[in-house]
């Protein structure tokens, strides 16, 4: 596919620079994309609801900058970009509602700027439709206001490809160069490994295609990647024994990266599961996954449209970047989470929107009413499915987070209050809700030995959480216990006297 891209770009170079698409003076290319961004913000606030508590990974990221609870263990695959993004709110306020509103507004602004990066490359109506297609996916609406990095990788990917195409078309476009570097920094800041996969085709283009070699865009991209990843690399040597060791730890935590076809896992997760690990069960009903198979077909149609209209490079480059962005999550990992493919969806949105626009504006007038009707019906059904899945995902996530908050309140009632330490399978998010530190003696988040946790328990309220049907961990054997819902709370003798008898 990269060779095809090289050939197409060389052919485009021979034909001369890519002509800019005229935009309306009345909107200046901003009106429709801005309306899409505003609608995206409103959808998040109305459908995800700011009151939904923080999830497991969110608790890890927020705890790094929050005074509400001690920082949770930060494992090798994680990067600190999203923690720094929410620091302006999380560093002084424990309000989840305020944090959600802040992120919803910021994600809307990010979408608008990413679409603006494509101005002059496609008609405004195509860009607005692309933004709407991406912004109405349930996974996009769900993760826009979440303290998670994947949405921001998607925004950086979308903006970066657009900026490169503009920089290639106009060497004097300094804004495109700055955008090229800033988008790379954003992705690397959030998830360095994802940034590499997205950027790979761009680097191949800038280095290997002689007619497309541009030192300034290449320098901007490399500088952006280095700026965003430098903190993660330094941390690798300070805390993980080096870059190679950190990458190896990250692979181990993710189940061992290698050849593994995870397409079926991704399909199973489309029913609204935020994490499918282990990913078992049947494939969802056809109406829930039809859109997933329609995406590559429509993207292919968009490429055909681009070839016929003489703007192949503008469509082919995002398609290639979408492909490389999806490779690790479709073919190299043993589980699935819908958020992993957000960069893939964002990049495909441009050619898909171009294809749909072509269908409803075909030159054969007798077919236009039929095409408009079919596309409208398909979009209506698509939206109905997306928001049904979104509602289910929000309800389940809200319920689990409410349970964590309830357990935290119960811990306070029986005497486990800050400063305190929690251990056990679900201790990490519950510890954040309770204002405690979390500590694990084994597993991916192991950060303490049994001897150390016993020493801590002598002077600090400590509790081990376990399923009600399970035996207590070895270090908590003999500690007073309390049944709460599906959990049994084993508390250190220092607070054992406060535990009511079952």
Could you describe the 3D structure shown?
The protein has 502 residues and is mainly alpha-helical. The chain folds into two domains: 2-361, no CATH class; 398-496, no CATH class. It has helices at residues 2-15, 31-48, 56-63, 81-90, 96-116, 124-135, 138-143, 150-169, 174-190, 192-208, 215-239, 243-253, 263-269, 286-309, 312-331, 342-360, 368-413, 427-434, 450-457, 493-496; strands at residues 421-423, 437-438, 462-467, 481-484, 487-491. A five-stranded mixed β-sheet has the order 2-1-3-5-4, sandwiched between helices. Strand 1, helix 18 (427-434) and strand 2 form a beta-alpha-beta unit.
Based on CA atoms alone, the radius of gyration comes out at: 25 Å
Mean pLDDT: 91
Number of helices: 20
Count of domain modules:
2
**Alpha-beta content class:** mainly alpha
**Which strand-content bin applies to the residues?**
under 5%
Helix and strand pattern: HHHHHHHHHHHHHHHHHEHEHEEEH
What is the number of beta strands?
5
Which percent range fits the helix content? 55-70%
Low-confidence stretches: 1-5, 7-28
Sheet with most strands:
5 strands, mixed
The geometry reads as globular
- Termini, distance in Å? 65 Å
The largest beta-sheet arranges its strands as 2-1-3-5-4
Quaternary status: single chain
């Amino acid at each position: 596919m990269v060779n095809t891209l090289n050939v197409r770009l060389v052919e485009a170079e021979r034909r001369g620079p890519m002509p800019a698409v005229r935009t309306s003076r009345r909107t200046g290319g901003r009106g429709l994309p801005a309306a899409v961004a505003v609608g995206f913000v409103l959808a998040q606030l109305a459908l995800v609801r700011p009151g939904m508590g923080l999830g497991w990974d969110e608790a890890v990221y927020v705890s790094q900058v929050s005074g509400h609870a001690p920082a949770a263990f930060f494992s090798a695959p994680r990067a600190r970009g999203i923690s720094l993004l929410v620091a302006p709110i999380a560093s002084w306020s424990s309000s989840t509602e305020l944090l959600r509103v802040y992120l919803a507004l910021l994600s809307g602004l990010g979408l608008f700027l990413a679409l603006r990066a494509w101005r002059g490359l496609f008609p405004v109506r195509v860009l607005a439709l692309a933004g709407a297609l991406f912004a109405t996916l349930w996974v996009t609406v769900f993760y826009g206001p979440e303290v998670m990095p994947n949405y921001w990788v998607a925004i950086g990917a979308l903006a970066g490809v657009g900026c490169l195409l503009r920089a290639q078309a106009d060497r004097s476009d300094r804004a495109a160069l700055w955008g090229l570097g800033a988008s790379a920094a954003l992705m690397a800041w959030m998830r360095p490994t994802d940034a590499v996969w997205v950027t790979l085709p761009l680097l191949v283009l800038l280095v290997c295609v002689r007619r497309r070699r541009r030192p300034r865009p290449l320098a901007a991209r490399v500088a952006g990647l280095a700026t965003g990843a430098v903190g993660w690399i330094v941390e690798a040597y300070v805390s993980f024994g080096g870059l190679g060791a950190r990458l190896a730890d990250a692979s181990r935590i993710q189940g061992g990266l290698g050849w593994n076809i995870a397409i079926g896992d991704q399909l199973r997760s489309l029913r609204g599961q935020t994490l499918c690990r282990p990913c078992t069960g049947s494939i969802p009903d056809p109406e829930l996954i039809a859109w997933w198979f329609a995406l590559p077909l429509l993207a292919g149609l968009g490429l055909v449209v681009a070839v016929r209209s003489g703007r192949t490079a503008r469509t082919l480059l995002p398609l290639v970047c979408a492909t490389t962005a999806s490779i690790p999550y479709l073919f190299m990992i043993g589980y699935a989470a819908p958020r992993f493919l957000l960069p893939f969806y964002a990049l495909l949105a441009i050619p898909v929107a171009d294809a749909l626009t072509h269908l409803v504006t075909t030159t054969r007038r007798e077919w236009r009413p039929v095409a408009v009707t079919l596309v409208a019906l398909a979009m209506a059904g698509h939206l109905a499915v997306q928001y049904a899945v979104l509602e289910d995902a929000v309800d389940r996530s809200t319920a689990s987070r409410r349970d964590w908050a309830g357990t935290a309140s119960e811990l306070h009632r029986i005497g486990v209050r800050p400063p305190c330490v929690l251990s056990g399978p679900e201790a990490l998010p519950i510890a954040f809700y309770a204002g405690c530190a979390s500590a694990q003696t084994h597993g991916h988040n192991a950060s303490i030995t049994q001897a150390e946790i016993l020493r801590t328990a002598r002077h600090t309220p400590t509790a081990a959480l376990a399923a009600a049907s399970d035996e207590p961990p070895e270090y908590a054997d003999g500690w007073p216990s309390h049944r709460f819902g599906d959990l049994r709370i084993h508390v250190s003798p220092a607070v054992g006297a406060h535990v009511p008898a079952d």
